Structure formats: C-alpha cells, structure tokens
Amino acid sequence: MSETDKLVKRLDSLLDKIEPFIPDLPKGINKFNGGAFRWQSYGHSGLFHEIKHATKIRLSDLQCINRQKEKIDLNTRQFMSNLPANNVLLWGPKGTGKSSLIKALLNEYKAEGLNLIEVEKNDLGDLRIIIEQLSEKAAHFVLYCDDLSFEADDPSYKAIKVVLDGSLSQTPDNILIYATSNRRHLLPEMMSENVSSQNIHGELHLNEAIEEKLSLSERFGVWLAFHPFNQDQYLEIVDYWLSKFDFVSKDMEAVRKASLKWALEHGSRSGRSAWQFARDWVGQNKLKNGI
C-alpha cells in the first residue's frame, strides 16, 4: 500500500469517528406562498427560514403617519400588480413607525402572495445569492433590511449599493428592497467633509467623500421621512392603543398625565413609547381589578 493510500485510509477513519458529532444543517424553505421569512447565512450560502410568529400589526394600527402609509402602500400595490415600483428607504428617529409600517404591509398583502424576507445587516453580503435564488420563483418578494447604518469601511455597504443599482445584472421585477435607517444617508457625515467642499462660481461642488455617501441613499427610488411626534400626536396614539386593548377610564385626564410622565421617563414621545405605556397601564389596571 502506497503512502497516499495509507493517508486516505487514515482520513476516512478519522471522518467516520467525527461525522456523528457534526450537526446537520436545518432544512430551509423553498416554496413561498406569502408570509414572513428570515435569511440565515451558513458559510458561503444560506437558507430561508419561516417566521412562524410574525407580528400582527396592520396599517390601520399606525397613527399619525398617513402620508408615509399612503406612499409605501401605493408602491406596494403597484408591485403586487406587476407594475413598475421602487425600492424604498424609510428614515428618521427611532420609534416613529418605520419598521412597523413594513411589517404591516405583510399583513395587508400576505393573502395576495407577498413574501417579506428579513435580511440582517451582517448578511447583506449574501444579497446577490438571495436574489439569484428568488429571481426564478413565481412570487413577490420584499427584502426587509432594518436599522441600516454603515461605517465608511463597512463591506456590506458596497454589497447593498451594487445590488440597488450598480451592477451589470438588473434586480428582477419580483424583488424589492425596503430598508429603514436612523440616518438619511446611511453613513456618518463629518464636518471636515463639508469644509472641504468647494464653491465654484456660485455652484456647490461636493467632495468625493460626501458624493459617495449620497450615492447609496439616492439608489432608493422612494424616500420616506419620519419625524418625532408632538404631544398631541403622542396622546392620540396612546388613546388608540388604550381603545385597542378595550380599556375605558372615568378619569382619562389622569391617564394622559401618566402617559406623558411615561414618555418623559423614557425620553421619547414615540409611537413605540405610546404602545408600551398602553400595555403597561392596561395590564396593571386589569390585574388590579381582577379582570
């Protein structure tokens, strides 16, 4: 027996010993009939996993963002009708309804076959693989990228930029990207970059660093800006969620004062803060009253 044959035999023996301890990869989803899914990366590939307990929020649950709702809903209806539609960037402060709006679209159009696939920031490098796997399927897909923000040297920034509009291959018509971010331009902007811009004959010439940062957000066809809620809007959202939880009080003024105190303690008059207050208040009161 040659030395090579001996080595192969030893390797086979070693593999037989360790093979029982190698975990099998979980089975992924290959058929899409409408629903929520998550891409899970495994090495140089990955699998789609169904999210079985997706949020049940509806568009009607989202208050004080009617303009944003109407715009993204129209874009999604165009998409579901096989008409031209755009990738969408939703940007603004936390808790203003960006992520909830995308999740609500799933519940509005799931029955019509919309598939919402969550792609985490760490997996953005897999976007081309994801699109290749979905491009030939007879279904509609929205790739959901939540809370995007990048540092200047972040490789995932380049990956999403190329997929949006920077490659010889075109993203198929059955796939859109809906992304949320706290930053309008997705990358940090430095004062030094603005200082180095030039004013030539009254025309502003941005330096290359700024142009690079603008180029990513400009690849989204639709921009939706979200802004902090004022006090009246915050109280309106609180009232909505209290009624949604079937709560009625004889002293609503006390409830509103408590909700404002909650917002002050949590540092935010956001929709999320209003929802959290309503849950806390209703839960405590129903427990206290034995309901």
Summarize the structure.
By secondary structure, this protein is an alpha/beta fold. It is 43% helix and 16% strand.
If you had to describe this structure to a student in words, what would you say it looks like?
The chain has 291 residues and is an alpha/beta fold. The protein is built from ten helices and nine strands. It has helices spanning 3-18, 66-80, 98-109, 127-135, 155-165, 191-195, 208-217, 231-244, 252-266, 271-288, and strands at residues 35-42, 45-50, 88-91, 114-118, 140-145, 175-181, 198-200, 203-205, 222-225. Helix 9 (252-266) packs across helix 10. The protein is globular. The termini are far apart.
Can you write the helix and strand succession as a string?
A: HEEHEHEHEHEHEEHEHHH
Rounded to an integer in angstroms, the radius of gyration calculated over CA atoms is 24 Å
Using DSSP, what is the number of strands? 9
Alpha-beta classification: alpha/beta
| First-last Cα distance | 81 Å
Helix content: 40-55%
SS strand fraction? 15-25%
Largest sheet, spatial ordering of strands: 2-1-4-5-6-3-9
Q: Report the average pLDDT across residues.
A: 83
Spans of 5+ residues with little confidence (pLDDT < 50)? 189-197, 203-207
Tertiary shape: globular
Query: What can be said about the biggest beta sheet?
Result: 7 strands, mixed
Number of helices: 10
Characteristics:
291 residues; alpha/beta; seven-stranded mixed sheet; 10 helices
Write the layout of secondary structure elements.
Layout: H1 3-18, E1 35-42, E2 45-50, H2 66-80, E3 88-91, H3 98-109, E4 114-118, H4 127-135, E5 140-145, H5 155-165, E6 175-181, H6 191-195, E7 198-200, E8 203-205, H7 208-217, E9 222-225, H8 231-244, H9 252-266, H10 271-288
Parallel strand pairs: 1-4, 3-6, 3-9, 4-5, 5-6
Antiparallel strand pairs: 1-2, 7-8
Helix pairs in contact: 8-10, 9-10
